[in-house]
Design goal:
By secondary structure, the chain is α/β, with parallel strands linked by helices. It is 50% helix and 12% strand. The protein has 2 domains: 236 residues, Rossmann fold (3-Layer(aba) Sandwich), CATH 3.40.50.620; 38 residues, no CATH class. The structure holds zinc ion (2 copies).
């Protein structure tokens, strides 16, 4: 198989675009594609200082390198962010992840911040798993959201980019239809405006890029990343979620471009009417402990409430 653009050997076939590309032409193609997507969805409008959330996996490390290229073209500042969640499970998962994230930050010579949740907030995700009744992945999501908003505020970031890829989006959409989670679906966007009370917007630059393409880009460009996935993830939605993901991949094999159509049509045609129907503008109150925004009628935010349940914060302590 030869590259469509030169005489080199093709390393990847992109069936939905009906092309095969060599190493260099594939990298160039993906970089252009990302730039086109970012422009089409106005991801970089008014952007000055962007934080990239890097877990150390293939998606977020590739995103970091792609955003680095864009920062040179569009002249915005880049800050690397890694959250050490304290997930060990006998495998040292978090510490290895942080190592890979830092390796990439230093490789590119960009400013970065590592937040160690244990040091900063007094507990680890592993500890929360045993002590808190809610599923561990939902606690983890809460911790990540809170920490990212907090760093954005402290570092003066106007934008945070995360590494959700096309396969993640397709899986989320299909399982949202399946379970009727209209509120979650109506909030799924490539560019999310700031949460009430915050100033930072969140973008998902990889949302139309296939997992396979990201992996290929990481490999051919020798981006260091951690292969292990979180030791807790097998619990997210359990076997059903896995099956939905695998079925989507099978559909993709039979109908090239299936996931792309599913996600692009959802975002371009379905999400907005859903948002209009289901998302209500909520008023916010101020958490009496940390001062951050919380839902109206609550005086303690769910993050501080979690810290209280973990026994690392007392309700009377105030700030
Ligand atoms: Zn070529
Ligand atoms: Zn709070």
């Amino acid at each position: 198989m030869k590259c469509n653009k030169c005489d080199e050997k093709a390393i990847i076939k992109i069936p939905y675009a009906n092309i095969a590309l060599c190493k260099n032409h594939f990298s160039e193609w993906l970089e252009h594609r990302l730039e086109r997507v970012a422009k089409k969805y106005n991801m970089l409008d008014g952007v000055n200082r962007v934080g990239v959330a890097v877990s150390g996996g293939k998606d977020s490390t590739t995103l970091l390198h792609l955003m680095y290229n864009l920062s040179k073209i569009y002249g915005f500042e880049l800050v690397g962010i890694n959250i050490d969640l304290g997930i060990d499970m006998g495998k040292g998962y978090s510490s290895k992840s942080t190592e890979f994230a830092v390796k990439n930050f230093e490789m590119l010579g960009i400013r970065y911040k590592v937040v160690r949740v244990k040091e900063q907030y007094g507990f680890t995700i592993d500890e929360a798993k045993h002590k808190i009744r809610r599923p561990v992945c939902s606690t983890c999501g809460l911790v990540k959201r809170y920490t990212l908003n907090d760093i954005a505020e402290k570092e003066g970031l106007d934008t945070i980019a995360t590494g959700h890829n096309l396969n993640d989006m397709a899986q989320f959409i299909l399982s949202g239809y399946f379970s009727g989670d209209v509120l979650d679906l109506s909030r799924l966007k490539p560019v999310s405006p700031p949460e009430k009370g915050y100033k930072v917007k969140k973008i998902k630059p990889l949302f139309l890029i296939y997992e396979k393409e990201i992996l290929t880009y990481a490999l051919v460009n020798k981006i260091p990343f951690i292969y292990d996935s979180c030791p807790h993830t097998f619990r997210v939605g359990g076997a059903t979620q896995d099956k939905i993901r695998r079925k989507l991949e099978e559909m993709e094999d039979e109908i090239p471009g299936f996931m792309l159509m599913l996600v692009q049509n959802f975002i371009d045609k379905i999400q907005k009417p859903l948002e209009k129907e289901y998302v209500k503008e909520d008023e916010v109150s101020k958490c009496k402990i940390c001062g951050r925004p919380t839902s109206k009628g609550r005086d303690i935010c769910s993050f501080c409430a979690t810290r209280i349940s973990m026994g690392v914060l007392s309700e009377a302590r105030g700030k």
